Amino acid sequence: MVAALAAAMAAVFLWGCGAFQDIRPQAEEAADERIYIQDNGEMVIVGFSQIGSESIWRTANTNSIQRALTKERGYFLITDNARQKQENQIKAIRRYISQRVDYIVLSPITESGWDTVLEEAREAGIPVILADRCVDADASLYTTWVGTDSFQEGEKAGRWLEENLKEKNRLYEDINIVILQGTPGSSAERGRTEGFASVASRYGNWHILDCQSGDFTTAKGKEIMEQFLASYPDIDVVVSQNDDMTFGAMEAIAEAGLTMGVGGDIALISFDAVKEALELVRKGKINVDIECNPEQGEYIHRVIQKLEQGLAVEKAYEVEEMVFTYRNVTEYLDKRTY
Ligand code: GYE
């Protein structure tokens, strides 16, 4: 019993986000980091399997990793774009194994289906660093994970709605909600859906009319939103699990002759907080944007540095994230690079 409790607490600790101060990137240290990388003068070869280029966020995430794992720092980085297909990711990983890379960085499209290929990497002695999304495989099959807490992001969305309705004295009114979900079975979709539901389930008057996947793309987001608008005449809130789908939803809403955002017919809750979306938050067209931070490259570099020095790493590293509304967005807008 005590052992089980200790194990449960250890798991909570691993998935918490308090222990990561030591690898948080420090800009002033960037100059001379090659010294930590292999002392025999050889480059550290990293095979990176990226999901695709479905969103602005994804491109920013790829750029962040490519900016961090540079030749100047002693890396030889091979990147593969899987075009949103798990089979392509599995092929890329097998290629990296046969090329005998030093590390594999994997951003897994969905949570399931990785056990066999991760076993193969382990047998080959290649550490796997998960980036962005999670897997449901045994934790011993990967070295560490650097990413974002999508359950918490979904929860933040729910809390924002709660606060907003409270401010307007509408907390106990009937509220009709539709959800534009990301790629089905991805940890980003599951976490955001479940996190939002954890708040929504407390309100019998919040009606989730429909949830459909727009696959994190603008085109699909628009298509699904058109279907929602055709089926449900009285939508109050759209929860769109990334900015790209939100852009598509906005087109569909405008074409249906409805208004959106602060004071509009339909409130928009979005995720990611890319620059283009933050501009729309500033203009009051998107009510709130829950940040998902794509800048994970420096964290991955820090992890590899530690492993190269034979130091222990944590099982999970979470990047920091904020919530943006028209009230606080202006001061952050100028600094946004993606
Ligand atoms: O929100 C979305 C992207 O996995 C957190 O994937 C990521 C999500 C991000 O395509 O825009």
What do you see in this structure?
The protein has a six-stranded parallel β-sheet with strand order 2-1-3-4-5-11, sandwiched between helices. The chain has a six-stranded mixed β-sheet with strand order 7-6-8-9-10-12, sandwiched between helices. The protein is elongated, with a radius of gyration of 21 Å. It has helices at residues 2-15, 56-68, 86-98, 115-123, 150-167, 187-200, 218-231, 243-255, 275-282, 297-308, 330-333; strands at residues 44-50, 75-81, 103-106, 128-132, 144-147, 175-181, 206-213, 237-240, 267-272, 288-291, 316-318, 323-324. With 338 residues, the chain is an alpha/beta fold. The protein folds into two domains: 2-6 and 150-292 and 328-332, Rossmann fold; 14-147 and 293-320, Rossmann fold (3-Layer(aba) Sandwich). The protein is built from eleven helices and twelve strands. Bound molecules: beta-D-fucofuranose. Residues 54-55, 57-58, 132-133, 148, 188, 216, 242, 271-272, 292 line the site of beta-D-fucofuranose.
